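Repro:
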Amino acid sequence: MPTFVVFDLEFTSWPGALEQDWGAPGQLREIVQIGALRLHEDFSVVEEYEALVRPEVNPRLSTYFTELTGVDQETVDREGIPAAEALGDFLGFCRGQSVLSYGNDMVVLGENVGWARARGQEVKNGFLAAHFLNIRPWLNALAPQTATSNVGRLWQVLGLPKPAAGKEHSALFDCYSFAAAIEHLNRTGGTLPEGCLQHS
């Protein structure tokens, strides 16, 4: 059955970090939340993946990050899992699939895998078993009005019904927004880029 994965990450941030490309001393893009959906070729959801991750270099979340995502310190301390474990689990979820992002989240994923391994931690599963693809250029080309939109607002910009409970900058909600946008564009004449569907 052909399926594919869409995913989104929320990672540590501070005021001005985006504009400075996380260039200030000590500011790393440590993953705090991973969301993903495995979708059938008809865009129905086969499986959800969600994880909270405890950052290690900057374990205290900034107020800016919490206000942006709704993820608070207490929840991460209570429910967050070690980065190496979360990364390995997620890469296992992606095995044998095309894995689509709205932007270069796979770069952030790679950074976090590299840091975990540099700390001597084992990350089960690797990148080579999955095919990561940034389809933001495809989506923006088909729907130019989305060019300045973040992934969690795609459904709104395209005039679609709200795809799930929650709000933007929550990783799993952003995945539903992304999936709704892809489905809409596919049904209105856009064809997913080659390689987006793999047989699992």
